[in-house]
Design goal:
Strand order of the largest sheet: 5-2-1-6-7-11-10
Largest sheet: 7 strands, mixed
CATH superfamily: Class I glutamine amidotransferase (GATase) domain
Number of domains: 1
CATH topology: Rossmann fold
Oligomer: single chain
Helix content: 25-40%
Number of helices: 6
Number of strands: 11
Shape: globular
Length: 180
C-alpha cells in the first residue's frame, strides 16, 4: 500500500503523476486528504481523496509514503501531526519515504536525510538537514527517494515503480506512456 498525502496547496503534477503511474503498475495507492476529502492544489484544482487522514494509521500494510511539494502544501504537510507519525513510523520500520520539490525539507527538518544523498527544488538545499545535495532530478538513497520538482514528476514516479515492482515493470510502464 502506498499513501500519497495531499494538503491544501499541493503541486498537482507532483502528486497525481505518481498516483497514475503507480496504479498503472498495479500498486495499491490511496490519496489521503489532510483536512478534508476534497483538497485544492496549488493551481486551484480540486482533488477528491480516497481517504481522510483520520481513517488511517501507520501500519505494516504500508510500503511507501509520498509527500508532494508545492510550498503551501509542504508547509501544511509539515504542520500535520499525523503525517509526522507516518514519517516516523516508516523511518523506524524501514518503509519507503519519498518526497519531491519542497517536501524533502520536511525530512531534512526531522534530521532523516543527514548523511544521505538527496535533491530538492533549487533554493531548499539548506533545508535538507545535513544531506549531501546532488542537484540530480531524482535521488534514491536507502529508503528515501527525493526529486527536484514538477518537471521530473514522471521520472520520480517511475523511480517509485522501480523501487516497489522492479526495473522491468518500470521500463514497461515508461514504454507504455511513451517517455522513451
Amino acid at each position: 500500500m502506498v499513501y500519497v498525502f495531499l494538503a491544501e496547496g499541493f503541486e498537482e503534477v507532483e502528486a497525481l503523476t505518481p498516483v497514475d503511474i503507480l496504479r498503472r503498475a498495479e500498486v495499491d495507492v490511496k490519496t489521503v486528504g489532510i483536512n478534508s476529502s476534497v483538497i485544492r492544489g496549488s493551481h486551484n484544482i480540486p482533488v477528491i481523496t480516497d481517504l481522510d487522514i483520520n481513517e488511517t494509521e501507520p501500519s505494516d500494510e504500508i510500503d511507501m509514503i509520498v509527500l508532494p511539494g508545492g510550498l503551501k502544501g509542504t508547509l501544511n504537510l509539515e504542520k500535520c501531526e499525523k503525517v509526522s507519525e507516518f514519517i516516523e513510523y516508516c523511518n523506524k520500520n524501514n518503509k519507503y519515504i519519498s518526497a519531491i520539490c519542497a517536501a524533502p525539507s520536511i525530512l531534512g527538518h526531522k534530521g532523516l536525510l543527514s548523511g544521505k544523498k538527496a535533491t530538492c527544488f533549487p533554493g531548499f538545499e539548506k533545508e535538507l538537514g545535513g544531506a549531501e545535495y546532488t542537484g540530480e532530478p531524482v535521488v534514491v538513497d536507502g529508503i528515501f527517494t527525493t526529486a527536484r520538482g514538477a518537471g521530473v514528476a514522471l521520472q520520480f514516479a517511475l523511480s517509485l515503480v522501480k523501487t516497489l515492482k522492479g526495473k522491468e515493470t518500470a521500463d514497461r510502464i515508461a514504454a507504455s506512456v511513451q517517455c522513451e
